[in-house]
Amino acid sequence: MEAGTAMARLVIITGMSGAGKTIAVQSLEDLGFFCVDNLPPVLIPKFAELIEQSNGKIGKVALVIDLRGREFFTALSESLSYLKDHYTIGYEILFLDATDGVLVQRYKESRRRHPLAPEGLPLEGIQHERRLLEDLKGMATQVIDTSTLKPLQLKDRIMSHFTNADQSSISVNITSFGFKYGIPIDADLIYDVRFLPNPHYVEHLRPNTGQDAEVYDYVMKWPETQTFLTKLLDMLQFLIPQYRKEGKSQVVIGIGCTGGKHRSVAIAEYLGRMLGASDTETVRVSHRDSDRDRH
Fold first, then answer.
1. Res 159: pLDDT
2. Please, are residues 199 and 278 in contact by the beta-carbon 8 Å criterion?
3. What average pLDDT does the segment 37-43 reach?
4. Which residues of 268-294 are buried (b: 16+ CB within 10 A; e: fewer)?
5. Residue 146 annotated as binding?
6. What is the secondary structure of 54-101 as a DSSP string?
7. Which sites bind ATP (predicted)?
8. Are residues 148 and 185 in the same domain?
9. How far apart are CA 203 and CA 11, in angstroms?
10. Domain count of the chain?
11. 227 annotated ligand-binding residue
12. In the chain, which end has fewer C-beta atoms inside a 10 angstrom radius, N or C?
């Protein structure tokens, strides 16, 4: 084995049809990855062999695997197991997802037919595809929910993640949300903070969000908030290194309240500051629903 080959990086891009795999490929191409679209899974070991024989000349590779090659799709887990047993190349699985409603809308806008329902309704194909991909999503090292992301935002997320060359680090994404708008489908951990006193019922605080100092201080001043944060931080400081040891490159933590505007935002901001002090984690905080009711 040549010394340079150990640095090879293999990314497998997969996920729901219409969730943004084309943008993912373009983003990785911009980062210098050699990309192959629609590769049959049975050829993954052969591709790994070519990478190792290149003596480091092929260092960053991205392979798109999707249901256009569904006759080969069941071989994916066997190919990945073979890769792990016979090659030194590490691999990551990037899984792109979106809600059924968003995917249906995207198919309507593009006037495309779903590959698994060429003669039927897009929703039928989407639901069938989701069932087929359920196990693969569980194997993914990174899941991105593109439901609310614009193309440039998705590109930024992907490039930010894959620009980080330190494979010993882990990306921690903390997102606040409102339960009434649905749970983030890419979350690994969900915490419900609806038990905390609600600034919504304080008239002068209602228009603001948990990023405003007055709302933040209101959420933080209660004994139950401090007790919860002490226990939550203790749990996360235990869990995150375990995820990193298991090989995960990303953990998504969802913090939810009723509307995603006050309590969840304040708690997410606090966690971002506390976890962001670590040298082994890259922490990113986002607020999915905080601006929905601003007007």
1. 84
2. no
3. 82
4. bbbbbeebeeeeebbbbbbbbbbeeee
5. no
6. TTTSS-EEEEE--GGGHHHHTTHHHHHHHHHHH---EEEEEEEE--HH
7. 15-22
8. no
9. 50
10. 2
11. no
12. C
66 is in an annotated binding site: yes
In a domain, 294, yes or no: no
Both 256 and 127 in one domain: the answer is no
pLDDT at position 73: 63
Where is 282: in which H helix or E strand? Answer: strand 281-287
Regarding whether 209 and 94 lie in a shared domain, the answer is no
Q: Single out the residue in 165, 192, 226 at which a domain terminates.
A: 165
CATH number of the structural domain spanning residue 97? 3.40.50.300
Reported as a single tens digit per residue, the pLDDT across 161-217 is: 787 545 556 789 999 999 999 999 889 999 999 999 999 999 999 999 999 999 999
| Structure token digits, residue 47 | 């591709």
125 annotated as ligand-binding: no
**pLDDT computed for residue 68 by the predictor:** 58
What pLDDT band is residue 280 in, cutting at 50, 70 and 90?
low
Q: Is residue 74 part of a domain?
A: yes
- Domain containing 121: what range? 9-165
Please report the pLDDT score of residue 7 as a whole number: 58
Between 150 and 162, the higher pLDDT residue:
150
Report if residue 293 sits inside a domain. no
Instruction: Give dist(CA 220, CA 207) in Å, integer.
Output: 18
Summarize the confidence of residues 28-40 as an average pLDDT.
Answer: 85
Q: Does 9 carry a binding-site annotation?
A: no
Average pLDDT, the chain: 85
Q: Which two tokens stand for residue 133?
A: 């991909």
User: What CA–CA distance (Å, rounded) separates 28 from 66?
Assistant: 17
Same domain, 107 and 126: yes
Verify that 159 and 189 share a domain, yes or no. no
User: Any known ligand binding at 210?
Assistant: no
Query: Is 67 part of any known ligand binding site?
Result: yes
Q: Does the annotation place 17 within a ligand binding site?
A: yes
Boundary residue ending a domain (119, 140, 165): 165
pLDDT tops 80 at residue 71: no
